[in-house]
Design brief:
Elements (H helix, E strand, L loop, with lengths): L2 H11 L11 E5 L2 E4 L4 E4 L2 H4 L8 H13 L10 H12 L5 E5 L2 H19 L6 E5 L8 H5 L4 H4 L9 E4 L4 H7 L4 E6 L2 E2 L5 E2 L2 H13 L3 E5 L23 E4 L10 E5 L1 H4 L15 H14 L2 H19 L6 E7 L2 E6 L4 H9 L2 E2 L1 E2 L4 E4 L7 H16 L2
The structure holds pyridoxal-5'-phosphate (PLP).
Pyridoxal-5'-phosphate binds next to helix 5.
Length: 394
Amino acid sequence: MNKQEIMEAEARYLVRTYARSEVVFARGEGAYLYDESGRRYLDFAAGIAVMALGHSDPEWAQAVADQARLLTHVSNLFHTEPHVALARRLVENSFADRLFFCNSGSEANEAALKFARKWAKRAGSEAKNRVVAFSGGFHGRTVGALSVTAKAGYREPFAPLMPGVTFIPLNDLAAAAKAITPETCAVIVEPVQGEGGVSPATAGFLHGLRELCDQNRALLIFDEVQCGLGRTGTLWAHQGYGVQPDIMTLAKPLAGGLPIGVALVTEDVAQVMEPGDHGSTFAAGPLVCRAACVVFDRVSDPSFLAAVRAKAGHLSDRLRGLPSPHLVEVRGAGLLLGVEFNRPVKPLVAQAARRGLVVISAGENVLRLCPPLIVEQQQIDEAVDILASALSEW
Ligand SMILES: *Cc1c(COP(=O)(O)O)cnc(C)c1O
């Protein structure tokens, strides 16, 4: 099919849930994507902060090919080695004692909410079922995850959703102190908000949430689906804050582009779950877990993380130097950066694509940069130069 035929078929056969850019990508290598005509683009979206090792990483591709020839799926009714190998890596390198595997960020947050509900029934009363979430927060599109996602436009067409959710502003500890009560079973927060505009929580705020959760016997859930696994320059985003959660959810980058989700939990949370309480047919198959082990081993290497921090510093310095009267602020953490402008960035995203740079937005006015973590300094310079030239025509 040529480009036109592909776009027409998409419009004919798919439910219209996406407004796609007018580009058809055919392959990728490292930090570059190639469209159907062979044109090269620098990829500073990485499939929404997914492709941490870049595209077509040789070690990852070899592991996937080898495992596909060995064993792809048998279901969770049987033992296999790769999911245990991955679970050991994640547990031994985090606050957690145990974990639950699923297939996406939404599913990881569904698991976290179900765990919190059951934990609270055991810890308190039936009334202890409320959840506190934050403006700008994004936790997914399934009914439970959507119920704690702030944007009204995402939620309202599907109401009524899960009841008992209170939204309060991020970094407003006074509001949190009012909202978190003994009836709260969980507080769910992204240490660095992604979709909602690339807004980091402050350290004082996360420490305050930890204290309020402890005082009210509520679970603190960190959604690190986007900001976790090296993206901020530490293995987990919360390590930059020195605050530990009771549950952490992961997904986007973990399996190098294959679908996976994880809810990591403390023993206190894990012990309320019994066989039959939750499950998934596809979760933690040998193929996806073998792929994830490759990603985890590479990203968790201290020298890899040090390189992320160095490159992140360079990118944020260069972004701060962008010449634009419309630039409001550069913010974020590590290689998850947002550039806020005083007007919608959609035309800028399109201009950048025309000049061979793929970037995405995070809300109306914020340009989001989340390149593969293997991006090189010279590619960062190239990307910022393209942005500067796109800005000059904006
Ligand atoms: C993308 C995202 C999700 C949802 O993940 P899906 O895999 O799309 O279900 C949840 N939380 C955060 C922070 C995300 O960025």
